[in-house]
User: Fold these one by one.
Assistant:
Number 1:
Amino acid sequence: MYADPRKIKKNEVKVRLDDDVNDLLEALVKNTGGQKAVIVRDIFMRGLKESVSFGSKERTAA
């Protein structure tokens, strides 16, 4: 089914959000019509990629 079995999303992470952050997320879900978990994963991946690239920029600048 998958060309690369490593791309199967089988690992879970539990995240606890306060009410304000959850309300923002719910508004985003309502406005986009997307699924909550997919939106959170996309936001997380963008932040993770930015953090990794920022860290590599710091190492090369030093």
Note: The two ends are 45 Å apart (CA to CA).
Number 2:
Amino acid sequence: MTVKGTRITVELNGTVILDGDIADGRDNGTLDHKDHPGLKRTTGHIGFLGHGSVVKFRNIRIKDLTAEAPKAEGKKKKK
């Protein structure tokens, strides 16, 4: 799963299964015309859910893409 701003992409076993922007639903209303307060949040928890089926996950990692990239090692300043 990659989240950049309001754009969410979900990849499963190398295949993109979701690629969308929640800003459209937040700004123009959702397809079900119901209130979804979570669309207005900018921080919070990530939930992995199934639709009535058993769901299992493994090897989940979270990486902050806004953090600075680590500096390359091996390059030292000359005195």
Note: Helices lie at 23-28.
